[in-house]
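okkk here we go again. third time trying to get the flavin-adenine dinucleotide bound version out, last two times i messed up the smiles copy paste (missing a bracket lol). double checked this time i swear
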Amino acid sequence: MIDLEYDAIVVGAGPAGSIAARILAENDIKTLVVEKKQEIGTPKRCAEGINIDGLEKVGLKPDPVWARREIKGAVLYSPHGKSLEMFLDKKRGYVIERKIFEKYLARDAIRAGARYMVKTLATEVIKEDGKISGINAVHMGKKLRIKSKLIIAADGVDSKIAKSAGLNTKNPLTDYHSGFQYEMVGLNLKNTDLLHIYFGNEIAPKGYVWIFPKDDDTANVGIGILGRLSDKGNKAKDYLDRFIENHPQIFKNASAIEINAGGIPVGSSIDPLVMDGLMVVGDAAHQVNPIHGGGMALAMNAAKISAEVGVKAIKEGDLSKKRLYEYEKIWRETEGVKMQKLLKLRSFLEKLKDKDFESLADILTEEDIIKLTKGKYRFLLKLFMKKAPKMLPLARKFLT
Ligand SMILES: Cc1cc2nc3c(=O)[nH]c(=O)nc-3n(C[C@H](O)[C@H](O)[C@H](O)COP(=O)(O)OP(=O)(O)OC[C@H]3O[C@@H](n4cnc5c(N)ncnc54)[C@H](O)[C@@H]3O)c2cc1C
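finally!!
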């Protein structure tokens, strides 16, 4: 057994973990990051889309090293192929090269003073007299006992650390999407500076298919569907393969160079997010956009907030749940409010039939869609009253 001691341990070197580590280290907190994989960023489990706000909030500027394609907006396709283009206004988005991005974030944290240990699996928290005092870990067959004042659990969707500390991080099947994706080359795609998103219950029940271009002929082509459906023998992969087969004009000459799969916790947040000596961030805390399943920006923002609170708590010598709750409060009052609205909107969208999607494609404008992505949906009631009265009862049930 090897004994180590740090002020803060971050479990997981994903986007959340490395942002938290950088901020802790920048503030002279002796920080260790443990990452179970032997290579940070690999394999990726991501379509790699992020908007500029998500980067800027945590002090990042797009770097050509990882910002692979600038994106100007998206095209949404109805089940029968009607399309609606929406542009990001003056803002930009990016499809990034996540394997490089994650290493870049780790590099920044290390340069700020954090220590990283890859191929190091955190197995559980250590509790002494009922109080969390560190973690047990295994590094290449060697057992480690690492003491620390604060633990930030940034260990992703399958988080074990928060669970071992006693928090409920279970993913209910109603709030869990199955994601499956190919990175493909050889596509024949128009508008490669737009994301392409396809809806419909035959295409992707209670979810969507995406094509996120990385190049003129290269893209992440994926699907997210409600996990419950995938369990009934209709696997996400089967739907995606069918979609590809049904679009030979795009995929005739394309081949996959990579397969990515993973779960997406779309329930908006676990409750609580903190306990004495421990904070949970990112996918581990289910801080993912309930509508589109994007989680990098939210994870990094939560990590920033938690690390800033962690710095103050360590310097004050108060790692109590009450002190760390500042992180949870800020989260719930900012991102959390929007997430709750998007959760409601998701419940509504999940009830739509294909004919409803067609009606939406007829009546929604670009501005309407932008409003919806921000969780502003009240206008829908008025709109349905005027233009799609058949959808009113459903909207009243889920959106009021
Ligand atoms: C198919 C798919 C497509 C997606 N597309 C997008 C997208 O386009 N845009 C977007 O913003 N989001 C997307 N997401 C979601 C996004 O990938 C996550 O929200 C994001 O990775 C969350 O970051 P994180 O740091 O919280 O967790 P992760 O990135 O999962 O990082 C957790 C890290 O912890 C490590 N770890 C886990 N357990 C332990 C342990 N016990 N000990 C040590 N290390 C451990 C893991 O190896 C991992 O490196 C997608 C997800 C999927 C599955």
